[in-house]
Specification:
Shape: extended
Oligomer: single chain
Strand order of the largest sheet: 2-1-3
Number of helices: 3
Strand content: 25-35%
Largest sheet: 3 strands, antiparallel
Number of domains: 1
Order of helices and strands: EEHEHH
Helix content: 25-40%
Radius of gyration: 15 Å
Length: about 70
């Protein structure tokens, strides 16, 4: 199940919405976006609107694994 939370600022307050269409039409207000298991349509929409590349689950795991610090 895809979940998205859009955090934005308005009148010196921070609010949360879960409406991806609102995010696209109000991009200038957005502070950050949290996504849990986003579907392809959501990812594509955000990538296109914000000119970003959303990493796949596999890429995220590879980055997390390679950045671990181990001391013997």
């Amino acid at each position: 199940m895809s979940e998205i939370k859009i955090f934005y600022r308005e009148d010196n307050q921070i609010y949360v919405k879960e409406d991806i269409i609102w995010a696209v039409t109000n991009a200038d207000k957005i502070l950050w976006v949290d996504m849990e298991k986003p579907d392809e349509e959501t990812k594509s929409l955000l990538e296109e609107k914000f000119n970003i590349d959303i990493r796949t689950e596999k890429e995220i795991v590879e980055i997390e694994t390679s950045s671990r610090y181990i001391e013997n």
